[in-house]
Design goal:
- The chain is of the alpha+beta class.
- It has 15 helices and 16 strands.
- Helix 2 packs across helix 4.
- The structure holds histidyl-adenosine monophosphate.
- Histidyl-adenosine monophosphate (HAM) binds next to strand 6, strand 10, strand 11 and helix 11.
- The site of histidyl-adenosine monophosphate (HAM) has 26 residues, from strand 6, strand 10, strand 11 and helix 11.
Amino acid sequence: MIQKPKGTYDVYGEYGKKILYLEDLIKSLMEKYNYEYFRTPLFESSELFHRGVGETTDIVTKETYDFVDRGERNMTLRPEGTAGVVRSFIENKMYGRAEMPVKAWYYGPMYRYERPQSGRFREFYQFGVEAFGSNDPALDAEVISIPVRFYQLLGLKNIKVNLNSLGDSESRNNYRNALIEYFAPHIDSLCEDCKERFSKNPLRILDCKVDANLEIMKKAPKMIDYLNEESRNHFLKVQEYLRAMDIDFVVNPRIVRGLDYYTHTVFEVEASVEGFGSSNVLGAGGRYDNLVESIGGPKTSGVGFALGLERLLTALEYEHIDILDNNGIDVYVIPMSTNEKDYAMEIVNSLRMNGFKVDCDYKDRNLKSNFKQADRLQSKFLIIIGDEEKQTKVLTIKDNISKEEHKLELDKIITFLDEKIVDAHE
Ligand code: HAM
């Protein structure tokens, strides 16, 4: 039997309903924040990600799905959303827009050749935003507030924002030199990956999971002490605005992020859910003031984040949060025989057009198995249609929980259901 590729999953049933629910919530949240919907291709030229994500990052060196197309072009399935949105911003000359910042949101599949494990897939879905053209620290705070509000709306409680600043290029260079000086005498005690990071990107040593508990890691110089005045002010302002918006955070100097493009603010949103392990980072992001330029656009600052849908759904499960409290259908229509099917379909159609969730028997079941089917579909009401109902157009509607019955004509049934099912027209 042909099986799905490793690290991927199919969506159906409950999971599908949850995904659709989350998609709706994302759309309405983004309207409130006034972000504009972007969709960019699932594949782009490989060069975009090399330049955009960074040549030395794990993503580019170990995790991309690369292929040569029939026109001999080097292509890559997108491992993340930022680079593509930046390319689109430049290619569509959005830097020329009068209304700045340009605030984009996106949602879709990303591809990374990672070792599949809990919370780590090879095809996964991200919801993210990117805001271009303003270096106002208030915009950093707005971006950080989006995943926090989103998780709060869903009822997740133990959410923690870890915040850090990598400063501007000057601050970062100073810090880089300080790290090189500090780690040089200890290089032999670091893991193999860190030895490589030491020469390519020493900042990444700080988020190494293998060496995390070494004494030398704990005493390593902190970025905060190397921020120049401008960078320090930016960072302090971000914190001030977060407090103004009542967003809890902790400054965590070990947040350096695995992508090369960040400057100033970096953050990770964590779910402190027991048993959740290393996949507890639900979402992450930061500011990238040089990325647009390095991909070929005019110097334009940017800030954004992305969160993974799969990890979010796992966190909800661990916290026993059922986002589908209104899971069943409203009405299940049962024709007593094929003679009443046409009238049953008329009723089904009218109820659906009036905004109710309706289904019908398509298997010519007997009454008893239809009652079972109504229970399986968690139907709130039943309408049983026999010859008499078809002739008189007076229908019996039965509450599937209380078993109470009412005899009503269709328009009265609609009014009745409107009162009973509050969210039917939402
Ligand atoms: P990232 O930290 O690589 O950042 O990914 C963001 C989120 O995507 C993670 O926190 C996680 O929830 C989810 N994620 C990443 N890899 C996987 C995977 N293999 N399986 C399941 N979920 C995963 C970025 O992608 C940046 N583009 C974020 C950003 C936007 N920064 C600025 N703008």
